[in-house]
Amino acid sequence: MIVEQLKKRIVVLTGAGISAESGLGTFRDSGGLWENYDISKVATINAWHQNPAMVLAFYNARRRQVIAAKPNEGHYALAALEEFYDVTIITQNIDDLHERAGSSKIIHLHGEILKGRGVDTDKFLYPLDGDIELHHKTPNGQRMRPHIVWFGEAVPKMEEAEVMVRGCEILIVIGTSLNVYPAAGLRYACPNWCEKYLVDPGSIEIDDQQFEYFKGPATVQVPLLVDHLISKAKNS
Ligand code: BJW
User: How remote is the CA of residue 142 from the centroid of ligand 1, in Å?
Assistant: First the structure.
């Protein structure tokens, strides 16, 4: 056990890849979600305005998948890291698998599928355990929509995320193609002396030689990386 104040600060940026082995599809891999759906029809603010029924059907189906999914060894390993480090997870994922694995500090950049909000404000969020129907309203009478950040919408948690990355000593990037901004740009915010690790089975071309690449699936590589970091903490 390490005294709270002496713990090094780790920020972990996660993407769809960490939940892939929990059965939740990624977006851009072969067989990923965007191969079966047209992004512009389901994950943009324009799509919501033009065809809310189609957007709701897409997210209702994904909500059911999330509810049925379970955290995997990657999620659990990150939760275990908290005994030795001050860990903040910044996730682009809308699932709750980090929470269910036991991580305590989580910033959801692209929203949370198990929450709904009114169309005019994300100030009030409502827990969801089932589908949103077209006629559903919030308690103050607004049409209910999923609490998701679509293309073309601002990313409200970016500032909070950037502050965390600026102050971190170790940055870990897991299971993201780094295609979507502004999330993908967060890696540039960390101090240039900070330790950096990347976990991904693909061939991520990262324009920063300082990243140590743990190449392979999250369920294998995240526990290995976490063991490595815990040994370092114990020996320091
Ligand atoms: C494994 C694995 C295993 C496989 N283990 N790994 C700058 C330049 C160009 C464009 C822009 C820019 N800045 C903004 C933009 C526009 C746009 C954008 O980025 N477009 C790009 C496509 C170019 N960005 C936006 O619109 C954002 N908003 C914004 O910028 O607002 C500005 C604004 C200000 C003020 C007013 C108004 C506007 C919003 C972005 C919202 C993204 N939303 C989505 C969908 C909603 C959530 C959902 O439905 O789930 O979020 S898109 C989708 O992509 C989703 C994801 O969170 C996001 C990232 O995907 P991710 O996680 O990287 O997944 P994949 O599939 O790409 O990669 C998976 C990885 O896992 C791969 O590397 C695999 O190898 C790996 N993997 N198995 C470990 N077992």
Answer: 27
Say which CATH superfamily domain 27-68+116-148 falls into. Answer: SIR2/SIRT2 'Small Domain' (3.30.1600.10)
Look at residue 53 in the predicted model and tell me its pLDDT. Answer: 96
Angle, alpha carbons 100-103-108 (nearest 5°):
85
Instruction: Read off the pLDDT of each residue in 153-176 and give the average, rounded to a whole number.
Output: 98
For the chain, which residues make up each domain, given as ranges? 1-24+71-110+154-236, 27-68+116-148
Three-state DSSP at 115 gives strand
CA of 232 to the centre of ligand 1 (A): 32
Q: How far apart are CA 166 and CA 209, in angstroms?
A: 19
Instruction: Give the mutation target among 19, 27, 162, 198 for probing the ligand 1 site: most ligand atoms within 8 A of CB.
Output: 27
* Token pair in block for residue 75: 């999620």
Confidence of residue 76 (pLDDT cuts 50, 70, 90): very high
The whole-model pTM stands at 0.97
CATH code linked to domain 1-24+71-110+154-236 = 3.40.50.1220
Residue from 106, 145, 151, 211 to probe ligand 1 pocket by mutation (most atoms less than 8 Å from CB): 151
